[in-house]
Amino acid sequence: MNNEEKNESVWAQAIPFKEQMQIFKRIMGFVKTFKFEMLISLFGAFLVSVINMLLPYGLQYFLDHFLLKQTATVQIIIFAGALYAFGSLLKAVLQFTYEFFFALGSEKSLESVRKALYRKLHTLGMRYFDQTPAGSIVSRVTNDTMTLSNFLAVLSTVVISIFSIGSALVAMFSTNVTAGWLMLAFLPILLIIIWLYSQKSSKLYRNYRERLSRINTNLNESIEGVSLIQQFKQEGRMTNEFEDENGGLMNTRFNMIRINSLLLSPLTSMLYSLALAVSLMYFGFPLQKTFVPAGVVYAFSQYISQFFNPISTMMDQMTLFQDGIVAGKRIFGILDDTEYEPKQNPEAGLTISKGKIEFRHVSFSYDGKHEILHDINFIVNPGETLGIVGHTGSGKSSIINVMMRFYEFHKGEILIDDVDIRKYPKEELRRKLGLVLQEPFMFYGDISSNIRLYNDEITDDQIKQAAETVQADQFIEKMPGKYHAKVIEGGGELSQGERQLVSFARTLVTDPKVLVLDEATANVDTETETMIQKGLKTLRKGRTTLAIAHRLSTIADADQIIVLDKGRIIEKGTHDELLAKKGYYYDLYTLQNNKNK
What is the mean pLDDT of the segment spanning 152-167? Predict the structure, then answer.
């Protein structure tokens, strides 16, 4: 069974009632933070339920004591009408109050959930993002949190409904005890229906949420890879995949509509009609010893309506409740994930001053089963340059990943200035280790903000100096607005080389002690590479440099070079020493030179 089939089988399972209540309790944990708004809302809802109980009672009293006895004067009629109007107006004001404060508390709660999710995502390790599609993450942060908004609206309805049901029951028992017990007998039936619905619908909503997440993933891939899709004529395949997912989502919605149509409003309406018929039969039964006044029958029918209407409303919104429970489970799936970024045990005041790098018997595995790095050993003294060479999959980038603390290594030691890397504060590592990737990312903004990365401590002069050092000023000065030229998301209007030069300037402006280059010139043209190499010579002065190289000519002047194969160092030395050995490095260098001829 593949992963997709396993996921499908998980989606098909209902969320147990006990787990639903646990999820509900955790959601309420976010709501409790804003107790002031919620308490005002609850108090207002309680007062509305009291008014709902008193208004029919007032009409009952007026009917039985004045209209039937024909003792109602004009003053009494006006007073009764004015009192009823005042009660209705007060009810409207209280409804506005509790709805406003509940909405305010709900929005604050949702903001708290989004903040918690966003903060959590930035504490997760790279392995989590390797295993989880970006579209799925976006769906949880956006769609699922918005679903919680509807869920909290349901809570408002539930609270009001509970007050209404409670006040209606009190009023019915106060009016007629026997009739009240007859109505209460319908409550277990309604509870059974609610339980049955929660069991049947939870797996459907779980399936729906997961399919929606897969559609977002599919859409995200289609947008990001649109040029590749068009280049290789994959439009048909991508469309078919999207239609399959969309069709599955539609079928799930159809199943949800069927169960909602069967177990929600229609069934509740039928029970309401049956309860009303039972009450009328009871009050009109010939064996009644005393005459039942019309006002009592009217008031009791109103109480029945106040008892069933909230239940009907709650049943109609059970769909939103189940959707919210499933969304909550998916959100807490992120919040509970333990795939954290590697932990540091920082020592106070510890700083990187020289930049000496040492790997001692380091081994590493991404999945805990298959080692990618095997017993890696090397030393790079302060100010020296280490070139890292090897075929694709040999472990070059893995060395960078563990040294940058993107992943946790499991064996050996990594030392900086003869101190275990785990003892440095994370902030110190990020400040003193500068990384330039093969595929630089540009943020929406301008050139200046992409170099500064919103660090206000970096001045405009420092930005210009960094750009000049790496030769980026040559194209920046030609752009409209120069350093304030607009950059769209991803830097689509800049060439690959220009983006890379901005990335170099971004790294240089922080003045790192250790420079890490992950095939930084692999995707640029020869002319741009020449410009970058000029900038690199300046950039590397006084800095320890680790450079993964695709083009061996770029590391010919390195102080030492290590050659990797299947996660092991198979050769080590300077450029000339490795050529003299006529081993793997020699073959690779000769092959590249022959291609360039």
Answer: 75
The 10s digit of each residue's pLDDT in 11-57 is: 455 677 787 788 888 888 887 777 788 788 878 877 887 787 777 77
Integer Cα distance of 271 and 187 in angstroms: 10
Check: CB of residue 106 under 8 Å from CB of residue 153. yes
- Show the tokens assigned to 297: 């029958």
Distance CA(48)–CA(44), nearest Å, equals: 6
C-alpha span between 349 and 121 (Å, rounded) = 28
Rounded to whole angstroms, the Cα distance separating 458 from 454 reads: 8
Structure tokens belonging to residue 587: 């073959």
Residues 235-252: tens digit of each pLDDT? 788 888 888 888 888 887
Q: Residue 372's Cα: distance from chain center in Å?
A: 30
Round to whole Å and give the CA distance between 21 and 30. Answer: 15
CB atoms within 10 A of CB 309: 16
Helix axes 235-263, 265-284, angle to 10 degrees: 10
The average pLDDT across 152-165 equals 75
Model confidence pLDDT, tens digit, residues 280-338: 777 766 555 555 666 677 667 777 777 777 777 766 666 677 777 878 888 888 888 87
In angstroms, rounded to a whole number, what is the distance separating the alpha carbons of residues 178 and 181? 5
Task: Tell me how far CA of residue 554 lies from CA of 385, 482, 543, in angstroms.
Answer: 11, 30, 17
Q: What spatial distance separates the first Cα and last Cα of the chain, rounded to whole Å?
A: 51
pLDDT tens-digit readout, 429-468: 888 888 888 777 888 888 888 888 878 888 888 889 888 8
Token pair of 283 as six digits? 């009050």
Helix (H) or strand (E) holding 564: strand 560-565
CA angle 382, 385, 388 (to 5 degrees): 130
Q: What is the rounded CA–CA span in Å between residue 167 and residue 248? A: 44
Q: What is the mean pLDDT of the chain?
A: 80
Report CA torsion sign: 195, 196, 199, 204: negative
Residue type, 397: S
Q: For 470-487, what is the mean pLDDT?
A: 86
Contact 320, 201 (CB under 8 A): no
Collapsing DSSP states into helix, strand and coil, what is residue 305? helix
Q: Sheet harboring 371-380: ordered strands across? A: 371-380, 357-365, 411-416, 419-420
Using DSSP bridges, classify how beta strands 560-565 and 568-573 pair: parallel, antiparallel or unpaired: antiparallel
Do the Cβ atoms of 381 and 416 come closer than 8 Å? Answer: no
Quick one: tokens of 582? 């006529």
Q: What is the DSSP letter of 140?
A: I
- Cα angle at 527 between 526 and 531, to 5 degrees? 110
* Calpha distance 429→355 (Å, rounded): 11
